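User: Could you go from structure to sequence for me? I need the amino acid at each position, not a summary. Structure tokens:
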């Protein structure tokens, strides 16, 4: 990627090198704006941290950015195909990306300029786009023992859990995928779901599989239940009938994720009582002039509102607004 000196000045600084951050950079470049993307981790950091064998709900066409075709083996691509696709897109457009560089502050010094400090440099920018996603902060259960090493809020490969007693918490895609994958690697899997049924967002081709595994008793499921305590060797579950304890080696708490609200506030984004970021849905500009939001971060705690496929347009909206000024 291109190199730039410290204290460089840009028309646009983009925080986050996920698919939507890349889309914003492509739009900025094609509009003749100078730009830089600053990313705290690797390219498309959230996708990199997805489970190794994850398959997207969306088709490859709906994940495309910059007009570059996304060719995948099947209709719905997997994680590794997505990583390769977005890397090739970044190469094609020769995007100016600073990886493993974390933003620490964004300060508006006047009506026309922002000063952005990172772990490696200081930048000046006329506009700032926050495209940080929502995968950074897991939703905690706040139960005793949640800080034990055996408790994981992120999951990558089922092999680690072979022949172990695994408790999976959650009702949606992450939890169901984890339960099925670890079960097929020989784990003794128990599923704990707070509601009365499997989540409505579960992929339609996966739903029959988990329902049949539960029906056959191959995966034990406790509905209307929740974990109340975790120890080195057991978990305690409150069920509708009684409280039970199960022998346990690992707890995979797929309880969901949320945007880094503390960071958003630090960067100048106003949040309402439900932690919904204030912004203009037509321009994506926040209450701070020149500071924009893009992608799933716009939905606050409603992480099912925005996806790559329906938030790609944010890049066009933002750059159009910037150019109009």
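Assistant: Here is the amino acid at each position, in order:
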């Amino acid at each position: 990627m291109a190199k730039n000196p410290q204290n460089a000045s840009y028309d646009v600084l983009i925080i986050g090198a996920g698919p939507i951050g890349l889309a914003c950079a492509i739009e900025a470049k094609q509009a003749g704006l100078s730009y830089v993307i600053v990313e705290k981790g690797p390219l498309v950091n959230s996708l990199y941290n997805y489970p190794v064998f994850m398959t997207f709900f969306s088709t490859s066409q709906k994940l495309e950015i910059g007009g570059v075709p996304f060719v995948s083996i099947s209709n719905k691509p997997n994680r590794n195909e997505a990583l390769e696709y977005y890397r090739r897109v970044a190469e094609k457009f020769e995007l100016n990306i600073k990886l493993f560089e974390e933003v620490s502050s964004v300060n508006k010094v006047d009506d026309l300029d922002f000063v952005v400090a990172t772990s490696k440099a200081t930048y000046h920018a006329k506009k700032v786009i926050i495209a940080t996603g929502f995968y950074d902060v897991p939703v905690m259960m706040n139960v005793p023992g949640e800080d034990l090493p055996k408790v994981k809020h992120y999951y990558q490969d089922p092999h680690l859990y072979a022949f172990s007693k695994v408790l999976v918490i959650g009702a949606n895609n992450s939890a169901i995928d984890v339960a099925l994958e670890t079960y097929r690697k020989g784990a003794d899997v128990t599923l704990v779901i707070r509601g009365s049924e499997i989540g409505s967002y579960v992929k339609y081709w996966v739903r029959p599989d988990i329902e049949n595994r539960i029906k056959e008793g191959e995966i034990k499921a406790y509905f209307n239940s929740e974990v109340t305590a975790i120890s080195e060797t057991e978990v305690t579950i409150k069920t509708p009938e009684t409280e039970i304890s199960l022998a346990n080696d690992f707890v995979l708490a797929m309880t969901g994720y949320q945007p880094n609200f503390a960071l958003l506030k630090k960067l100048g984004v106003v949040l309402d009582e439900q932690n919904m970021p204030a912004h203009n849905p037509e321009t994506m500009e926040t209450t701070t002039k020149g500071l924009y939001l893009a992608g799933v971060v716009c939905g606050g705690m409603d992480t099912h509102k925005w996806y790559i496929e329906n938030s790609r347009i944010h890049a066009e909206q933002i750059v159009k607004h910037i150019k109009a000024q």
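One structural detail worth keeping in mind: The chain has a mean pLDDT of 92.
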